[in-house]
């Protein structure tokens, strides 16, 4: 009998290298990486950075608008697939036209269009709209002084967007805090992570129509600092004639990403009912108090939660597409 060292290898064993090689090449098995565009679009990071810098300087509300757009895309059941960017068609009403999304600021949509246009010129049919949104959100956060976190890349864009899929999956300021928390915990976030993500209200603004009735309601008025409530009433006096009237969520440092939002809540300086709820609810109050005292802890949890949010139900390989235009499927 020949020794085992001289026996021919079984056919199935000879196929193993090809099997593993084919898995590696198969685009349907693609995985997200930090340097996904290193070879296919080496200018990716610079183009994103140049685009957001130009847009943020000309329109300072862009950062907060983009953070909100990112949240409204990723928190839905279909996850971070840029479906929020798709326009409605004669056959289907898209997510962006659901009632809760009608107030999404146009600056965020415009930013993504600008970045996509620049990337298509540099690297045609290479970079997904969902990767643009994820990377731009992180870069804008750091531009405002927020925490840096690595962004995984290699997402594909979704091929459908339905307004009917939105209801109940996005937080509304009028919801009790327990209901808002449930939206996040059902998506795998802890209460601490939910409170940290709520800290995005340290930048941006809210329309008067979202909160002004609370400043006149006896039960909710008690949550406000009285002087602050009167100031909100004066600022929003003409909101019925001008529905675009709005106020900063953080009156103290409205254009800086910091923990002052959490410091405001115990003082009755929250704008929205949901802001007050974070401090009045005994389950979330300890996290508000911790983040108010410790900005490093807030940044640490916020960064981890944003990265986690950016990975919800992402599509890779053949499961999605790279849209040529972010507002329509190919």
Which terms summarize this structure?
hydrogen peroxide; 2 strands; 2% strand; 330 residues; mainly alpha; Peroxidase, domain 1; globular; two-stranded antiparallel ribbon; Peroxidase_pln; Peroxidase, domain 2; oxidoreductase; metal ion binding
Q: Which consecutive residue ranges, at least 5 long each, have pLDDT under 50?
A: 1-29
Number of strands: 2
For the record, what is the CATH homologous superfamily label of the largest domain? Peroxidase, domain 2
Termini separation (Å)?
62 Å
Oligomeric state of the chains in view? single chain
Number of domains: 2
How would you sum up the global shape?
globular
Largest beta sheet: strand ordering: 1-2
CATH domain topology of the largest domain: Peroxidase, domain 2
Q: Brief overview, please?
A:
This protein has 2 domains: 127 residues, Peroxidase, domain 1 (Orthogonal Bundle), CATH 1.10.520.10; 133 residues, Peroxidase, domain 2 (Orthogonal Bundle). 43% of the residues lie in helices and 2% in strands.
